[in-house]
Design brief:
By secondary structure, this protein is α/β, with parallel strands linked by helices. The protein has two domains: 115 residues, D-Maltodextrin-Binding Protein, domain 2; 105 residues, Periplasmic binding protein-like II (D-Maltodextrin-Binding Protein, domain 2). 36% of the residues lie in helices and 22% in strands. A five-stranded mixed β-sheet has the order 2-1-3-10-4. α2 packs antiparallel against α9. The protein is elongated, with a radius of gyration of 20 Å.
Length: 255
Amino acid sequence: MIALPLLLALAAVSPPVLTVFAAASLTDAFEELGELYRRKHGGGDVRFNFAGSQQLAAQLEHGAGADVFASADQRWMGHVQRLGLARERPVVFARNRLVVVLPRPNPGRIERLQDLAREGVKLVLAAEAVPAGQYSRETLGRLAGRPGFAPDYDRRVLANLVSEEENVKGVVAKVQLGEADAGLVYASDVSSEIAGRFRVLDIPEEANVVASYPIVALAASTHPEAARAFIELVRGPEGRSILAKHGLVPPPAAP
């Protein structure tokens, strides 16, 4: 039988298990970053909770334990800060942009963005409380009245809304299953593994909303040093390379 002092000593040196709450659109990139973290930190484990940023913020507000929070927008990160749940000032580690995805068979016969306003098209978006949902509505509003787009373009497109999802992965799934003719998602959601199942319409840069992703170590973290190490990995050269591989755009490297 192992003596109690030895058990306590072994527990003291065991690598920490880090809990990271991250926006659903970060799933692929962060899972790869988690593997890299485990290799670089002696087997220290990372457990992820992927969901809509609004859901994650609500879980933290109600006492869920986590070490790191990565949001898909400043709104929900600001909410966490106002509650006093952030250990330090958040930093932006990635940016993203929106695209329109269509099922490869294209049952809605959508060839251009203007077709989204045609009566009878089935559109799916993230709910307005979800960062991607807010960005989508803002983008539609920016398109309205531009050359080639009717002044009420956004209203007509939203009249075709048949489903609102709790995160952007839900939008991707609905379009992939053929339950909608089109959806607005992040460019990073059209990964190389699934790109062949969709057609993609790009949104003009001047109308697109650039999503900023902030990350922070949480005040309640029981592993603050490990939390900072994970954030440094995300922001470092290897992390930036992984983010870019998955369609996210890291901000310019600090001089």
